[in-house]
Design goal:
Elements: H1 2-11, H2 13-22, E1 36-44, E2 55-58, E3 64-66, E4 72-77, E5 83-87, E6 94-97, E7 103-105, E8 108-110, E9 115-117, E10 120-122, H3 135-145, H4 147-150, E11 157-171, H5 175-182, E12 204-218, E13 223-233, H6 242-252, E14 262-265, E15 268-271, H7 278-281, E16 282-292, E17 295-304, E18 312-319, E19 326-333, E20 342-353, E21 359-370, E22 378-392, E23 406-408, H8 417-423, H9 430-442, H10 446-460, E24 463-464, E25 468-470, E26 477-480, E27 484-493, E28 501-510, E29 516-525, E30 537-548, H11 562-565, E31 573-587, E32 592-607, E33 611-612, E34 622-623, E35 626-637, E36 642-646, E37 649-653, E38 659-667, E39 678-689, E40 695-706, E41 715-716, E42 738-740, E43 742-751, E44 769-780, E45 807-808, E46 814-824, E47 828-835, E48 847-853
Parallel strand pairs: 1-7, 1-8, 13-23, 42-45
Antiparallel strand pairs: 1-4, 2-3, 2-5, 5-6, 9-10, 11-12, 11-22, 12-13, 14-15, 16-17, 17-18, 18-19, 19-20, 20-21, 21-22, 24-25, 25-27, 26-27, 27-28, 28-29, 29-30, 30-31, 31-32, 32-35, 33-34, 35-38, 36-37, 38-39, 39-40, 40-43, 41-42, 43-44, 44-46, 46-47, 47-48
Helix pairs in contact: 2-10
């Protein structure tokens, strides 16, 4: 369990670090002169229930907002207007008079009413809605018909400058929370709480990031290029991966093109309200016509037919001319949508008419509330983006678009405050400016440093003692049948001692076998950066003496931890490896990398495992060890890959492009070696989003060995005898059950994102998600590598009764599949797995239940 929790912590390292920081951050609230502020709550006049997604706007302008799921709203604007309007389908429109430049709180109770819009009648009793003869649907169809003319991709070339500002704040900050912390030395930090961002919620801003960039687009062949010319973030470099945070935020706030049929947002695809098939899934209502910055527009309200589908709802402003272009859109998601931890999302886009008579995006705001529940304290993140200096059909050379699609090319002056004051598209408020100075001050406080070091320990498992780090904590204790109880203590040098050289090692001791195991390594960085910062160029030399379970491959996880100590079936076959290794890792900005190395391993059997060439058990053909001398080259290409980089691995963010991995290894006579061979493995993995019904992760893998080798050098297919679900392993296969010298494998992992569960009354309130997996493995062993035909090869392992425990794949593939329920308590996924083939093998089960702790945002 500890290791799984550690994995969750790594996956959410950045938000967790923010949560610690926010418990300490001071913020003052300031109001800009001349700004009109209107806030409050909108409720049903009869029931008193809050009304979400009510349109609140200043009459005669596009300035406005939608109420959130609690009925709260907030408008801050410099637009000069005298009336604020509250409008919602099925309710009487309300309005209030205001004076520009003042602050107002309007708590509105809206009464239900019948509204007649030509042929369309909307009543609280919900008369049958239909598309036929509906003027709102006809209008949407005209918008859809004009999409290709209005979307920016209609141009051969397009470029613009972009200013982006991302802020995070703790939301729903209670007086009790601040009171507890006001008694200590940090009490002065909580004197002021910012209430200026979301509908009157008490907010504690803790993070701000600003980016200036230039974007280039080419239609044919389609290509994009982003050049970041300025990047300013709060300075927490010693605690967080700054580049990884930027990648996380890009994943969290992905670009939204309203003209696309499907909009990828977080871990799901939403159907756009102006998609070709949108009238099948949305309802539309014409509300009124109004001028938006001197452009007459028709305002439509849209909502999902099924409120649990991944669809938006809100207001769409369409130009009242032959262009039928989107002038503005305000939309959010329904509270019934099945999204982990996401309590609310509000998105606003404003478009301006260019000299080419095309409406291009001028401003975008995305607000996301993350928390356990709507009433609990959580995180609010807001991204505001401004677009300027559009250039249309100005050709750019083909050479320009080659290489990575994003390049950091900061202006040398971008580190100075003067640069940002003159280059920001809009100035920061006083409270936003203060976030930078606040964090700089906090870093000097011992209490803040202690808390941040605690978070680092929770997320990485390493205890930072300055120049030395101890860990990982999850491997302090474990158990297996050979060593019995195992104790391990590890340590490594930190970047405080040296960024160039990292020394790392551990010592472990088994109580039963009374053997000492150990490992030591030294890694040299060829760049000014440490080995924890992409792109890495390093040389590593290591030596290890330790046990290994054949066929268990846990990728970045360590096998010697408590949760993996609990295993099903029989697990008493081990290797004792003594391995010397030297390897060079070289990563490139375009995310191509290679790992070249040499290793020498003296491998001995342990437990109920023998290297014998005559028959089962000890005999004249028994060997004490096998010498393996190997050169290897791993090639990996992951275009557009993004990740958060920590000191124990990288947390990858989903990408739409495939990841290719090719592994080449060969036995060599460079040093003593018992066998000569060549081993090839190719792995291709990719995520596919399937409209509004979820996504699938698809993996295709193949391998081939050339030469004659014993079973320890064959492919030992990834097996899992623990009770945790392992995505890349065969969860109903025993360790060392199957070996091959050639194989192909298919792994399909499909998440329906609650598409079916959300249709079941009552059950849908649990917000569970459905998973389906399918894994197939087909391969075999040539006669020259089969000990049944070659007396000089090691016999396949067998039990004490002489029954074989290791097999080759025959004419039928190994197949297993599962159905799972995820998002239990927002964390747990449980799978029921069925094994379909090779059920007569010893110590196997047809059905099994596995679990995993998994958090997605």
């Amino acid at each position: 369990m500890a290791k799984c929790i550690n994995k969750i912590s790594r996956l959410t390292a950045f938000p967790l670090l923010l949560l610690v920081a926010i418990s300490l951050s001071p913020v003052t609230f300031s109001q800009d002169d001349g700004k009109t502020t209107i806030k409050g709550v909108v409720t049903d006049a009869v029931t008193g229930e809050p009304l979400p997604y009510v349109s609140v706007y200043l009459k005669g302008s596009a300035a406005g907002a939608l109420t959130d799921t609690k009925g709260k709203y907030l408008i801050e604007t410099n637009v000069r207007a005298n009336t604020v309007v509250f409008s919602f389908v099925g309710y009487q429109t309300e309005s209030r008079e205001i004076v520009p430049g003042k602050e107002y709180t309007f708590n509105i109770q809206m009464a239900q009413s019948s509204v007649t819009l030509k042929e369309v009648i909307v009543k609280p009793s919900r008369e049958a809605y239909r598309n036929r003869d509906n003027p709102a649907v006809e209008l949407i169809r005209r918008v859809v018909a004009k999409k290709d003319e209005n979307r920016p991709e209609t141009f051969d070339y397009l470029s613009y400058k972009k200013y982006e500002k991302i802020q995070f704040a703790l939301s729903n900050v209670s007086n009790k929370f601040t009171a507890k912390r006001s008694a200590g030395k940090l009490g002065l930090l909580f004197n002021n709480i910012d209430t200026s961002r979301v509908g009157g919620n008490r907010m504690l801003p803790v993070f701000i990031k600003e980016t200036l960039s230039e974007h280039y687009y080419r239609k044919n062949p389609e290509a994009t290029k982003d050049i970041v010319v300025g990047d300013k973030t709060i300075n927490l470099d010693e605690y967080i991966d700054k580049k990884g945070v930027g990648a996380y935020l890009s994943y969290l706030y992905q670009d939204v093109n309203i003209y696309d049929n499907e909009i990828l947002f977080l871990t799901a695809k939403f159907l756009s309200p102006i998609a070709n098939s949108a009238p099948t899934f949305y309802r539309y209502y014409i509300i009124d016509t109004l001028p938006v910055n001197d452009q007459q527009c028709i305002r439509l309200f849209f909502e999902p037919r099924n409120k649990t589908d991944f669809l938006f709802h809100g207001n769409l402003y369409v130009t009242l001319d032959s262009a039928f272009a989107v002038r503005k859109i305000d939309m959010g998601i329904n509270e019934n949508i099945n999204m982990d931890w996401i309590q609310d999302i509000i998105l606003t886009q404003d478009f301006e008419k260019s000299v080419h008579k095309c409406w291009l995006l001028a401003k975008e705001e995305i607000s996301i509330d993350v928390g356990i529940s709507k009433s609990s304290m959580g995180l609010n993140g807001q991204r505001t983006t401004y677009f300027r200096n559009y250039r249309v059909n100005e050709p750019v050379s083909d050479v320009f678009f080659k290489g990575p699609i994003k390049i950091d090319k900061p202006d040398p002056a971008s580190t100075t405050p003067e640069y940002w004051e003159s280059n920001r598209f809009v100035p920061l408020t006083k409270s936003e400016t203060q976030i930078y100075t606040t964090i700089d001050s906090l870093k000097q406080l011992p209490a803040f440093r202690r808390r941040m070091n605690l978070v680092i320990f929770l997320t990485s498992g390493y205890l930072d003692l300055g120049k030395i780090e101890f860990g990982p904590s999850t491997s302090l204790y474990s158990y297996n049948v050979v060593e019995g109880q195992r104790v391990r203590i590890g340590m490594r040098t930190s970047t405080d001692l040296s960024k160039k050289i990292i020394l790392e090692g551990y010592g472990a001791y088994g109580i039963d076998d009374q053997e000492f195991k150990y490992s030591g390594s030294a890694t040299w960085s060829f760049t000014p950066r440490s080995i924890y910062q992409f792109p890495v160029k390093s040389l590593k030399v290591s030596y290890m003496k330790d046990v290994k379970i054949p066929g268990q491959e846990l990728l970045q996880l360590l096998s010697d931890n408590l949760i993996f100590s609990i295993k099903r079936g029989v697990s008493n076959q081990f290797f004792l490896n003594k391995t010397f290794r030297i390897e060079h890792l070289n990563e490139y900005e375009n995310h191509f990398s290679f790992l070249a190395g040499y290793s020498f391993t003296r491998q001995a059997p342990l437990g109920k495992l023998w290297f014998n060439t005559d028959s089962f058990g000890p005999g004249t053909g028994v060997r004490d060890y096998l010498d393996i001398s190997e050169l290897y080259l791993n090639l990996r290409y992951a275009p557009d890959e993004t990740f958060y980089e920590g000191k124990v691995g990288r947390t990858l963010y989903p990408s739409l492009k495939p990841v290719y991995t090719l592994k080449i290894a060969g036995g060599t006579d460079f040093m003593k070696n018992d066998f000569n061979y060549l081993r090839l493995q190719l792995n291709i993995t990719r995520r596919y989003y399937v409209s509004i019904i979820g996504y699938t992760d698809l993996t295709l893998e193949a391998g081939k060995i050339f030469g004659q080798v014993p079973y320890p050098l064959l492919f030992m297919h990834r097996a899992n005898q623990t009770y945790t679900y392992q995505k890349q392993s065969y969860n109903m296969m025993n360790f060392l059950e199957f070996v091959s010298d050639r194989y192909v494998a298919l792994n399909i992992d499909y998440c329906f994102n609650g598409f079916f569960f959300n249709k079941i009354p009552l059950f849908k309130n649990l917000k569970l998600r459905e998973w389906v997996t399918f894994k197939a493995l087909y391969g075999g062993v040539l006669d020259k590598n089969n000990p049944d035909y070659n007396a000089n090869l090691f016999k396949f392992p067998a039990g004490s009764d002489g029954v074989p425990l290791t097999y080759t794949l025959g004419k039928k593939p190994y197949i297993e599949a599962s159905v799972g329920i995820a998002n239990i308590f927002n964390l747990v996924r449980i799978d029921l797995i069925k094994r379909f083939t090779y059920l007569d093998n010893p110590h196997v089960a047809e059905l099994g239940i596995r679990f995993i702790i998994k958090l997605d945002i």
